Amino acid sequence: MDRFYRHIKGLGILGIHIGALAAFLPAFFAWPALAAAAIVSYTTVALGISLCFHRTLTHRSLRLLKPLEYLLAIFGTLALQGDPIRWVAVHRKHHAHADQEGDPHSIRGGFRWAHMDWLYRHNIALPSDEEMLHFAPDLYAQAFYRALQYFNIPLQIALGVGLFALGGWSWVVWGIFVRLVISYHTTWLVNSASHTLGYRTYETGDESTNCWWVALISWGEGWHNNHHAFPFSARHGLRWFELDMTWWHVRLLAFLRLADRVRIPSETMQRRFREVM
């Protein structure tokens, strides 16, 4: 059964990539479709994955007003990277075993493994149902997140229908297929390139790096060595030149009183970490 689901997942990823090739056909290109894809990508990846799934739900780096948290969790589910419980469990297990045995996407399995092969090839490190309960008990305790486990595909279909109604097939090609391909590889590069390329500010015991170009395309997630040094931090770009656009969102939401309990490491903590390591 596990092999069957892995094949289905692999075929699904392949199908999405094939569907994105339609963007090269002139009949499916339109500037409004490109704009729609950009808007959906921003809401699902920047707000849904980086801000909500990663910094809010996985690491509790900040607390969002509950209705806003739930809305952004729906956006994150529309990124089609898994429901919040599964996404959070996988990422927490990654931090628990970073680049060691038990890490679902350890770079020590190779660049391609860390990038995407871990998703659809035999992977004993993927959290079981029992481990998902272990790694994400806070989300399991909420009926809303348990319900979202069953809405990955229905929500994506609903989005596709909405895009078709607004702009026809060009909006579907760009807003679903092209958008997913770009957002997938942007997210996957954090697991692969940001465990291979770049510089290391902290000796964290894993292979995480700060990769500037990954940070630019992933809303600040590419400052990955900083993140592994201080997983609790809502800010990943810790130096003045490390642009972290998700952090800008956090500051704005805190200013608007839509977020609180924002956590970042103090200058003293950062300095001591560098001195000790």
Describe it for me?
The protein has one domain (2-276). The chain has 277 residues and is mainly α. Helix 1 crosses helix 10. A two-stranded antiparallel ribbon has the order 1-2. The chain is built from 14 helices and 2 strands, in the order H-H-E-H-H-H-H-H-H-H-H-H-H-H-E-H.
Structural class: mainly alpha
Query: Major sheet, described briefly?
Result: 2 strands, antiparallel
Rg from alpha-carbon coordinates: 19 Å
Please tell me the total number of domains: 1
Distance between the termini: 45 Å
Tertiary shape: globular
Proportion of residues in β-strands:
under 5%
State the helicity in percent bands.
55-70%
Q: Helix-strand pattern, N to C?
A: HHEHHHHHHHHHHHEH
What is the residue-mean pLDDT, rounded to a whole number? 96
Widest beta sheet: strand line-up: 1-2
Q: How many individual β-strands?
A: 2
Annotation field: number of helices: 14
Low-confidence spans: pLDDT under 50, at least 5 residues?
none
Provide a brief overview of the structure:
This protein has 277 residues and is an all-alpha fold. It is built from 14 helices and 2 strands, in the order H-H-E-H-H-H-H-H-H-H-H-H-H-H-E-H.
